């Protein structure tokens, strides 16, 4: 039994080290990708400004690019606000369903207690476990 535990712990330690190595490598690669895409974005903005300044004045070209970026940022803010509102609605719905399940369980417990009073101790333990499990557990998407 001791050797099985040793082998399993060695396997788990190896997997954790490999996963940490992958995450570090991916983080570095994503950082490089972000820098390259940021540079490409800046040069694309410069190219657009130069193209517009050939046709219009440089000030008008700069203002046009600025206005386009502001409008794009406002659209992204609107999308983000909509997604946050949707997440709040879903979290509220999950809380309502959880409260409904708890209330139904309490109604069932009280009906059992009225019919069979000897099950009171077992029912009390079950209710305590139900309330402890439903309130003690936190999900990352409910925050």
TrEMBL record:
Transmembrane segments: 29-52, 59-83
Record key words, sorted: Membrane, Transmembrane, Transmembrane helix
Name of protein: Phage holin family protein
